[in-house]
From TrEMBL:
InterPro entries: Macro_dom, Macro_dom-like
SMART domains (alphabetical): A1pp
Pfam families associated with the record: Macro
Gene3D superfamilies, alphabetized: Leucine Aminopeptidase, subunit E, domain 1
Domain Macro: 1-184
Family matches, as NCBIfam families: PRK00431.1-6
Entry protein name: O-acetyl-ADP-ribose deacetylase (Regulator of RNase III)
Length: 184
């Protein structure tokens, strides 16, 4: 499995799944969330309204994730996850880790081969990008090791995900993620 970090716009990535750093309302917002909603078109907001009216009347809990179609995006699916907000006292790294692990689990259920993540909780949610990079990369590596235990080269991978891409919004974020990826 290739794990990489790139500078760019997550909404234009040619992947099966993009992960949205959503708020618990799922009804759009600023930053990555606003960009994904804008690029996906009105179908995404309608799908999120439907989730709120049915399975998530209280919103999506911090650390959890839910799938919608990608609508006008190149990606077939959007997996929304709610990162912990340090400004609200949500400082548990386990919650942040779950924002990377849960989307991977859901992507496997979609039979996805590629997934793109933003730096969930970095920026307006107050987490230092270096902490997000360490937790994100570490979570993906632990998930990869756990799902590939017993995998024999030459046989299909047990999960089907071939590419995990971190799509970063700034050079500083890219440097933080690349630094973590360079660690053995």
């Amino acid at each position: 499995m290739l794990i990489e970090a790139v500078l760019g716009d997550i909404t234009t990535q040619d992947v099966d799944v993009i992960v949205n750093a959503a708020n618990s309302s799922l009804l759009g917002g600023g930053g990555v969330d606003g960009a994904i909603h804008a690029a996906a078109g009105p179908g995404l907001l309608a799908a999120c309204h439907e989730l709120r009216a049915t399975t998530l009347p209280d919103g999506l809990p911090v650390g959890d994730a839910v799938v919608t179609p990608g609508f006008d995006l190149t990606a077939r699916w959007v997996i929304h996850t709610v990162g912990p907000n340090r400004h609200r006292g949500e400082t548990d790294p386990v919650l942040l880790s779950s924002c990377f692990a849960r989307p991977l689990e859901l992507a496997v259920g979609l039979d996805a081969a590629s997934i793109a993540f933003p730096a969930v909780s970095a920026g307006v949610y107050g987490w230092a990008v270096e902490d997000v990079a360490r937790i994100a990369v570490g979570t993906v590596r632990v998930w990869q090791e756990g799902t590939e235990a017993g995998w024999t080269p030459g046989h299909p991978r047990p999960h089907g995900i071939e590419v995990v891409r971190f799509v970063l919004f700034s050079q500083n974020a890219l440097d933080a993620f690349r630094s973590e990826l360079d660690r053995a």
